[in-house]
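REVIEWER CHECKLIST
Item 1: Sequence provided? yes
Item 2: Single chain? yes
Item 3: Sequence as submitted:
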Amino acid sequence: MDGRRQGLTVLCTFIPVRSRGSRAVGLVLVGVLASAGCTAEGTAAATTPRPTTSSHATVTPTPDPSPTPTPSSAPSVAPTSGPDQDVTKPPARPDALDGPATEDNAIAVAKYFTALFTYVVSTGDFTEWDALSGPDCRFCASGREKVEEIFAAGNHGTGGAVDLGFGSAAPDGDGRFVVDVQFTEYPSQVVDAQGAVVEDYPDTLQQTATMAISHDGRGWIVEGVQIDDFGSEE
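Item 4: Structure as written out by the authors:
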C-alpha cells in the first residue's frame, strides 16, 4: 500500500469466501480512526429604547437598562456528516440488525459495521463490534487486536470520521450477501493521554468496503471485509 492510505493500518490476511460472479472476496484489516465533534450556540441581540420628545418641552428620558444577551435555549447539535462528527458516540443502531435476510437490511448492516470501527478505536468499546464479528472473520479479529494495542499503550484515536455513501448487495444463497459500501474517511491521528500526536494521517480518502455477511436465522454475522481506495482528496 502506498503512503496515501492515511488513517489505515493494513495487516494483510486473505482467506477465500464465496465469489460474486468472478470477483473473489477476501479479508483485509483496516484501522479507521475516530473524531470529536464541534458545537455552536447563538445569542439574542440587545436592544436600546429610543427617547421620546414633546412639542412643548424637552424631556430627558430615563433609559431602560439594555437587556443582557442570553444564550439560545436550543441545544447545540454535533454535525452528522463531515470531519467534525462526534464519533465518541456510537453510530445509530439500525432496525435492520433485528430484521430478516433481505438485500436492504444487508446494506444497512454493512454500513453500520463500516461506521462502527471509528467509535471502537476512539473509545475501546467492543460490545457491538464483537456481537457482529463472525468466528472466522480475520478482519474483525485483527481490527480488535489493533485497537487493543493502541489502548494498551495508553493511546486512542481521534479524527477519521466516516461519511457513508452508496451501498449495494447481491445475494449469495443461504442468507448470505456480498455488499459494497462506498464511504469517505476524514483525516485522523493516534494521540497519547496528554494529546500528543503519535501517528498522523492527514488525507481524506474515498473508499469501498466489500463485505461478506450472512443471516443465520437468529442475527447478522460479518464473515469478511476488504477495503479498497477509489480516490483521495489532498
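Item 5: Key structural point noted by reviewer: Confidence is low (pLDDT under 50) at residues 1-58.
Item 6: Recommendation: ____
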